Amino acid sequence: MDRGKLAVLVVLVVGIVIGLAVRPALFGDSEMTAVTPTSTSDAPEAAQSVRWKMASAYAGTTPIIGPEMKEMLERIRTSSDGSLDIRFFEPGALVPPLEIFDAVASGGVDAG
Fold first, then answer.
1. What pLDDT is attached to residue 112?
2. Per-domain residue ranges of the chain
3. How many CA atoms lie within 13 A of 56 on its CB side?
């Protein structure tokens, strides 16, 4: 992976981590909701997974950003053994691109 692609990936991951860390401070713990598994604790571990919808402002075919984003989501899925599945949605599929931030903040979209 060349330095440019690696830099974009690092910036994206850092942004997601900062966004998740700052969110409780901005909105207070009372508005936060816990993510619960999709099945009971008696079910096999593979069945307990979290599924997120991720709205994107950039098409999956956008050079560097699109393919790298899809690859990163696949790596997350693989490294979590399928327990975290983030589904990529093209711009406008869930919300208009300029409304992604507000949609994530309100909980209408899981990631963006």
1. 86
2. 3-33+48-106
3. 18
